[in-house]
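Two proteins, back to back. First:
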Amino acid sequence: MTHLAPMIHQSHDLLPVRPPETVSMRTRDGVRLDADLYRPDAAGSWPVLLLRVACGRRTALTSHYAHPRWYAARGYVVVVQDVRGCGTSDGRFRPFEAEREDGADAVAWAASLPGSSGGVATYGCGYAGMAQWLALAEAPPALRAVAPAFAGWDVFSDWAYEGGAFRLADAMGWALRAAAEAARRVEDGTGHRLLSDAARRLPIDDEIPSRPQALRDYARYSHYDDWLTNPVPGPAWAALSPKAMAAAMPAEVAVLQVGGWYDPRLAGTLDAHDLLAARGRAPVRLVVGPWTADGPAAAPGETPTLDTLHLSWFDRVLKGEGADRGGPVRLHDVETGRWHDLPAIPPAEAVLHLASDGLANRQGGRLGLELPDLAGLDVVVHDPRRPVPTVGGHAVPEAAGRPDRAAIDRRPDVATYGSLPLDEPLTLAGRVALDLWVEADAPSFDISAVLSVVRPDGRVLPLTQGHARVEPGDPTRPLTIAMRAVCATLAPGSALRLSLAGSCFPAYPVNPGTGAEPGETRRVDALPITLLIHSGPDRPSRLRLPAGPQGRG
């Protein structure tokens, strides 16, 4: 049974901190990596916390975490290092390509720094989180713990694609920022200005929305074309991905993962926890809270900072201080603000069936416990000139969260299916999936699925979502869409709503219907697509949830 998880607050005797020192190391292939070193100004030795960043060590210091001085004052040596080709470090930045070897070299080097006790832990979010996984796969002996946040597990499915669709807004925004930094390093002022401006306002209205002019002109600075033109898993992706290297990761290293309900990489975070918890001998813990990839989002209840979570974890696994409190999985309830402790992530096993009289995009269909006796067919027309926009959720980091999507659900190109209002509270905590019987009049099409809570006051607030791109020949009998996980306690009078559409732009490119790749598709090439959504005894479309509905369904 889930319960309110205690928040951890510990007091520390603060130590004076030396002025920061800039220190450098050489990788095994001779590349110089620069870092800033923070350590207590006192006699003794301390564990080392290593943060390796791709966004410049000076600007990255307080974006998600307290300043390194904060950790140093609490008895840690802190090293913040620019990865290869970033900040002031030498080399060329190519995402994830060198992080396994460079990370292991950095761990060994950090363990030998002045004031080090010889044990090293890593921390960091996003790219810095993936860099930790890759270093762990090299099994450096001094590494005692890792703490990846908002990192994911697989570069293909957590960073570049989702459900077969390119992560347009997320991937483009990061590529433009990285390219702007590469232009700055070679003093290309014009390129830096154009790329920086494009990153602030994504050029998704270009003739080729998925491959805008700025990225075509400055492709030499970016990995973007490599990702855009490689839409299927394979050896090139596996060479970059911790998921493919899991067998090499030592089970003796403690793992704390932090994920966010509005983080684009949450699905991979959950997959990594499931695998490592099943085989690990060291502590493995997962915390999922009301965070986006860029930090906290507005949410009910008390939300601990990443620093309090990390400090209590590092104190326990590196210093043997503090109690082991809470379960292996801790989830924030987006409706009540409470925290729930679980032994594992519950699977999607309970079922709600879709039913309709053919007007789900007009007056709504139904979600119910019983399989409907009659067949249902809903027809939804996707118009590429007016794609259904992305509203909240996880897929556009700059606009992530839980805005009211009631107006979007009233569009005629959105089919909705709702449950009856609940008679008593219902807690959903775990994975969600959708099995949808669907077909279209085009060789390729997209399905965007959003699960929301309909509050008694009429607001429609997203809980989770999923997206799938169907390519020519893909099976759709049924089409299974993974919809990430959820933790929410629905109040009496609330209801569930499933919303289905043929687009979710700019989170994912508008599907032209032809099967052409996004980087080759002009806006003028896209065609209208008619979607047929089936339900009933012969084609039982169904929503799978981590807990069965209570009260009326």
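And the second protein:
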Amino acid sequence: MFLEFKRQVTEALDIALKSLGYEVDDLGLEPSQHADIASKVAFRLAAQAKCNPKELADKIVAAIDLPDGSLIGAIKTVGPYINIDAGRNYVDNTVKAILEEKENFGGNFCEGKILLEHTSANPNGPLHVGHIRNSIIGDTLVRILKKAGYEVETQYYVNDMGRQIAIVSWALSLFEFDTSKKPDHAIADVYIKANVILNEEPDKVAEIDKRMQLVESGDEETIKSFAEAVEFAVTGIKQTLLRMNVSHDSFPHESGFIRSGAVSRIVEEIKATGRTSDDNGALVVDLADYGFEKTLVIQRTDGTSLYTTRDLAYHEWKGERADRMIDVLGADHKLISGQLKATLNAIGKKEPEIVIFEFVSLPEGSMSTRRGKFISADDLLDQIEERAYAEVDKRRPEMEDEFKKDVASMVGIGAVRYDIVKVSPEKSTVFDWKEALDFEKQGAPFIQYSHARACNILKKAEEEGKWNPAEEIDPSLLTEDTEVDLIKKMAAFDSIIDVCAKDLKPHTIAIYARELADAFNQFYRFVPVVSAEEDDIRASRLALVNCARIVLANALDTLGIGAPESM
């Protein structure tokens, strides 16, 4: 609803300015502590108008003529600023729209096809804590973009022919695979053992190099051994992702771009630019004019391609299938992603939008799959659900075990997702067990509890015959400050989705969900709802509780977090 309000403000200002003989590209609209939206257009036009900004602001306001049914209310000047408040229609229409649109409220204002790649961890073991920020940021962005109205395809790019996979393939020929374990964990076991041997016997590295050459040249037996190793790991990784409420639409494999000839073609395209040269037998690309002193290696001395070369072919393929490409990558990919974009630009291909995130860690320290020093995502989720179960059991000891387990799973996964996504991607963060599960700290459990509270209020009112969800209500009766504040907070949902979709920073929706829960609790704290004496006011306030339930559920769903009806 806020986007429509902003559109009407833009239109009203444009018409007023044209009536005064002025035109401007930017109206200087921005949030304000003193109004629902403010414009500093008088600043921008003062020189052109040869007029004092304050006087110009007064002229502009005097020239505004609002049509019947406008969402705009009071318009005032404060010095050179034009402060604009939403009117009663905005408040009433928001309530009506939420009750009518339900789960569709706040979205479907964008269009276009987006391919978004996230996670894409090497299939040489399970996902660990260092990976899951990628998965959670990526999945939340997918949900935001879909809510905005985009058609989004989510991809996990599978490294099925790099050095690490060659080591796993070699390890499977040496060690017994433990079929009793989750497959990605069993893969990690043999991978760690193989690295011990490679460290102790460096001459064995030649066997790994040989495998990489064989797989790229098309040796069927080696290809089969690589594929078997990858499939084991990816099967387990998918299970972990689904547990975190994360899914992918497709899993393109690196090897496919070798087999199709796409890698060879893109190498020739890059050569045709005149940027390549021989560096001790390796083929490198000069990107100095793009600001990169270091050249990009696209072919090894033995003629095999690198991950980057195959990634270039992958992005060329993606660019032909979507309006936009988005990659979610760790901070260690800053250089290589910049070189990738520059190379694609140099050959006239579409470039991806890159979301770089800093890493999440636990107080226990850093992780490495190769050294066998890591805390798997599975272990993290087991522990967080165990702690969530203890919290639910403490609060609801009378409930059956199945209820406690279901809520603990929802709360535990929600706590992990929220605690990780609430921090802007470019900032590093440490996952704090206690804070994530603290019901009083306004994290995921606080938001989920607010939703459950709304459900409980409505259920109790319906059982007592005080609420009929089909009954028409009069939103104009909702005039208390906390009521209007809550409605305006819900109305802002579409603008939050819009900002997140443009900035590709999902922490904004996390902050919004927390503020929405707080606004709902403030309303319920200060305004009698079920106990309201007048029937029509009680009905309108219960409808407002229902609105809060709907928008809280929408916000939680966009965050990939479950919305329990009871906690």
